[in-house]
Write a structure and sequence with these properties.
The protein has 322 residues and is mostly helical. The protein is built from 13 helices and no strands.
Length: 322
């Protein structure tokens, strides 16, 4: 007995072909690579948004508000999903220190430094130094292995910094504000890397989303409180909210894709890939940042800058090559 074919529904084949596969059908590696691409773009452009915001808003207030709100939003999202947010008491000291390093110290030091250096240069310094410092702290914590190649990467990275600032120092044109600004970006990056290494073991027992939420809330809350108490102009700016639309737009961009989206992606990749491999965003985000800074701010990049940036990115490449 022959079976009759069901009549074709117009457009159903096309709709089926255009339908996105369920999340479970997407291979994990493809999903991780897509997340990584988003991370590279967002963190390549956040420096520009920060540069716009701190032009009119005190840096501590600008960062403290968004990280505090980001932490509260993540906690609310987790509770809405039915998850119980609980940090074991034995992990709280580690969580507190990691939060201070990742958010409080990193943000306020870097943002004050960013006032005195171009956004494109800050992007390159931070992006290239991150995988190197993650490796160094990872070796110290027993999470990574040290090799001769990574020693060469350290030498290249130091050489890149010397090429970036050495000619100006010898010529007497390197001002203290620029030097202090670059130092702030470097110290802030080291704080972030140290906090990442401290936080990674917690994700063996605490979901990455909970770690991100709590570090954002604790670090942002401490930074905001310190800003309101001690930062000049912070209390007036917080009560008046007379920031201007560019600063508000930059704040929203840093809150939504930056503090919420990219930070969650970062923690998931750190859990699945490890800290140094996740740091491969250093290859892409500096290019995004430098090109965007040249287009939006008219920042100039000289031959010495290109040479120094190339050395630092080459150092990152040695660290991250498998």
């Amino acid at each position: 007995m022959m079976m009759r074919k069901a009549p074709a529904v117009p457009g159903s084949a096309m709709q089926a072909s255009l339908a996105l596969p369920p999340a479970a059908a997407i291979p994990p590696l493809a999903r991780q690579r897509a997340m990584f691409a988003v991370l590279c773009f967002v963190w390549g452009t956040t420096w520009l948004a920060m540069k716009i915001g701190i032009a009119t808003v005190p840096p501590g207030l600008f960062a403290g508000t968004r990280w505090t709100i980001a932490g509260l939003a993540l906690l609310a999202w987790r509770r809405a999903q039915g998850h119980h947010i609980g940090i074991p008491r034995r992990l709280f000291p580690r969580l507190l220190i990691a939060s201070i390093l990742l958010i409080s110290c990193n943000q306020v030091i870097q943002l004050y430094g960013l006032r005195y250096v171009p956004a494109g240069l800050a992007t390159v310094i931070s992006s290239a130094l991150t995988p190197i410092s993650l490796l160094g702290f990872g070796v110290m914590a027993g999470q990574e292995r040290w090799t001769a190649r990574q020693g060469a990467a350290l030498v290249l990275g130091i050489g890149g910094i010397l090429v970036l600032f050495g000619p100006k120092a010898l010529a007497g044109t390197l001002g203290w504000p620029e030097l202090a600004g670059a130092g702030g970006v470097i110290i802030g990056t080291l704080c972030y890397s140290g906090g990442s290494i401290l936080a990674r073991p917690m994700m063996r027992t605490v979901p990455p989303a909970d770690v991100a939420a709590m570090t954002n809330l604790l670090g942002g809350g401490l930074l905001l409180a310190g800003s309101l108490l001690f930062e000049p102009g912070s209390l007036a700016a917080a009560t008046s909210l007379d920031w201007g639309w560019p600063a508000f737009g930059a704040w929203l961009y840093l809150l939504l894709p930056g503090s919420l989206g990219a930070t969650m992606i970062y923690w998931l990749l750190v859990r699945d890939w490890g800290p140094s491999r996740t740091g491969t965003y250093a290859f892409v985000s500096p290019v995004v940042g430098v090109v965007a800074a040249m287009a939006l701010f008219g920042e100039h990049v000289g031959l010495a800058d290109v040479a120094g940036m190339t050395l630092m990115l080459a150092a990152a490449g040695l660290v991250l090559r498998r």
